[in-house]
Specification:
Largest sheet of chain C: none
Chains: A alpha+beta, B mainly alpha, C mainly alpha
Distance between the termini of chain B: 38 Å
Structural class of chain B: mainly alpha
Radius of gyration of chain C: 16 Å
Helix content of chain C: 55-70%
Shape of chain C: globular
Radius of gyration of chain B: 20 Å
Strand order of the largest sheet of chain B: 1-2
CATH superfamily of chain C: Ferritin, core subunit, four-helix bundle
CATH topology of chain B: Ferritin
Strand content of chain C: under 5%
Number of helices of chain B: 12
Number of strands of chain C: 0
CATH class of chain C: Mainly Alpha
Helix content of chain B: 55-70%
Number of helices of chain C: 9
Largest interface: B-C, 46 and 42 residues
CATH architecture of chain C: Up-down Bundle
Order of helices and strands of chain B: HHHHHHHHHEEHHH
Shape of chain B: globular
CATH topology of chain C: Ferritin
Oligomer: heterotrimer
Number of strands of chain B: 2
CATH class of chain B: Mainly Alpha
Chain lengths: 92, 296, 201
Amino acid sequence: MIWEVFRQERKGQPFEHAGSVVAPDAEFAEAWAREQYGRRGESIGLWLVPRDAIHDVEDWADEFDLKYRRVDGYSIKARLKEARERAAARAR
Amino acid sequence: MRNEQAFLEYVQGGGQVETTDWMPDDYRAKLVKFIEMHGNSELMGVLPEREWILRAPTLQRKLALTAKVQDEVGHAQLIYRVVEDLGKPRDQCLADLVDGKAKFHNVFHYPTKTWGDVGVIAWLVDAAAIISQKALLKCSYAPYARIMKKICWEESFHILHGRDVILAMVTGTPEQFELVQEALNRWWGPLMQFHGNPIPKEDDPMYIWRIKSQGNEEARQQFLEGYVPQIWELGLTVPDPNLQRNVDGVWEYSEPDWDELKHVVTGHGPRTEDRLAFRRHFLDQERWVRDAVLAA
Amino acid sequence: MNELLLGLADDELVIGWRDSEWTGIAPVLEEDVAFSSIAQNEIGHARAVYQLLADDADVLAFDRSPEAYRCAPLVELRLLDWAHTIARRWLYEVADEIRITALMEDVPLAAKINREEAYHRMHAEMWHDRLRDEQRFREAVQELWPYALGVVESDQRAELSARVGLDEVAPVERGAHTDELAELWEEMTMVRRSAPAGAQW
């Protein structure tokens, strides 16, 4: 069975995918992942997940332009320049 | 995108490929062969070194050498997992290895004779390897590039350990200094062959597919530039009267024996057969363990 | 007490040495990595105990003649097949737990070692559970049982017998060495002996 290994390096850090071990059960997976991903004290936590338990999501529809809800959908430079010029003119 | 030309442009433009992405058959085949050879090399590299674990002259050296070899076994595990996810199971790789059907790097076909070899291997062979491995951090195949990060991080102590072993001997007795020099004399040839013949990278399919990101000669020059000064500063000599750095910063050297390289990697090195037999013996003897344990 | 500590250190050194023989050739790559950590830990324990007994751990580890080592015969055996190796690991860890916990009252270092050994025990139990029905393993345990009894003191043997689930038999006592120790010592010390005493490595 393939077990995916996620490891946490320090408190507060996210668990990140580190690799995988082949093991018959959680006990062996733990014994082996502890050494492969932690023998140098490089991890303070591991998540071991059978590969089959992982639900893989890979496709995204992006048919219509939905930029309105992203930062790159906004270009404020030109208007900002004009607004500043007008404010400066009003102040004179 | 299922078009070989588009894929080529994609990887040459720095694009990364994941396991489930479409890839041309040629890319996949070359990738598997390359990565498998790396895994085989890590595993075979263990054999020349493990005898010296048992003979290490201090507890600290014994621990360091055990940890170094342990890392190499760990690297083999990481690498074979990548190969398996590309479609070739681990036990098939191991079977091909012990049957002489798969290759491993030249340096692991040679004998180790003294504690001097231990230092030279850890310092210089690992140095040569790490140059290639750093270049592989940019491999177009992402799962392999990712494990290279862990591999490079772990390798960093190997070279330091090797240099420490060498330094202890070159500042020890005259006999110990001689052990190092003698080992260096034997390993120089294989080290110069290690990065492969100087095929221009534009003609190297591994570079074309961006599996490798550096040409063979580039790697060798990096090795010479980094390590020959370190060798010379200890008062050690390199057994090549033509070795010198010219005014452009390019290292010149006697032509390595490319026939020897070919002969060795095709399975005719001085220790190839008995090392493969050794591996085969334990693989066969302990098959029952894998059957008992790996059946979930 | 020093005799007991030296016995502990020599046991850990020699079993660590034997276990390190598997580096690179264990049956499963993942196990190879894990097993190597165990071997390194054992050597580390030996070193720590030697440092209680002398200034230079290496002098104790390498510079005595084979007869001067106080290790139990169990650890000296060359067992290059997995059934025997794991059988020995398991028997040794059960015996060692009894021995170490007895020392913990007087020796703080023993408590530290014991905490690390917890992982070794988990590992040994894990393998024992998997292989207990395999004939090869059971036979190996039977074969090594008299040697395992020799690891602990005589007043600890009933406990060991209860934990392992085998009746007490005539033990292979500490004190006399097997032929295998001399060969091991030869290989272990060959590089060190090639330079004058006090040479740096």
